[in-house]
């Protein structure tokens, strides 16, 4: 099946998310109460408090926000990556939606991310709606049958039907001889890099490396050679 997928018709995607507020104490009171309820369900021990696990808030679309979206496509053997990022989520979400509506609005394109079906795609869709924006075609999947949904997931493809199996992007990169995207930071560092250091450029570079790794991994799934450094182009 993968052999029949045209890689030129895939948009590779990765997002980086953080808690919506710098700390638990800076959340509005009503959201503190709601996070308290959430924390009761996700904490790993009775001694953990809602304050202590607030760092995990970024993985939930209701308590977090996106700070970077990186999207890449392969054209004439060059992977071109464009990033949308900033402090004002609504602003760069509009820019991303414009790209999707202008270039990825018909039925021939697919989205691809690692763990995208569980995280990136639903998180993006939820944050778009929370910001009062309209879903682009590739994320508007309501009412579609599973085989009609234009989403590829490199983690799901690796499961081969084993739904208990989780494999990180870093582990698959190592397994297939792909340079790891986790050289500088990893996902657990993003909130601190954003709220403490406010180093968005560092986050963007990390996000772009993930997109490159997902594209490389998909190429390996298709039995194709990896791209070289000169085949990567970052679009300003």
Write the layout of secondary structure elements.
Layout: E1 10-19, H1 29-42, E2 64-75, E3 78-85, H2 89-103, E4 110-113, H3 120-130, E5 151-153, H4 154-159, H5 169-175, H6 190-195, H7 200-221, E6 232-235
Averaged pLDDT: 94
What is the number of domains?
1
CATH class: Alpha Beta
CATH topology: Nucleotidyltransferase, domain 5
What is the name of the CATH superfamily? Ribonuclease H-like superfamily/Ribonuclease H
Give the distance, in angstroms, between the N- and C-terminal Cα atoms.
34 Å
Q: Helical element count?
A: 7
**Order of SSEs:** EHEEHEHEHHHHE
Helix content: 25-40%
List unreliable stretches of 5+ residues.
none
Kindly list the characteristics that best describe this protein.
236 residues, alpha/beta, Nucleotidyltransferase, domain 5, six-stranded mixed sheet, 7 helices, 6 strands
Describe this structure in words.
With 236 residues, the protein is α/β, with parallel strands linked by helices. It has a single domain (2-20, 63-235), classed as Nucleotidyltransferase, domain 5. Helices cover 34% and strands 17% of the residues. The chain has seven helices and six strands. A six-stranded mixed sheet has the order 5-4-1-2-3-6, sandwiched between helices. The chain is globular and about 50 Å long. The protein starts with 9 loop residues before the first strand and ends with a strand.
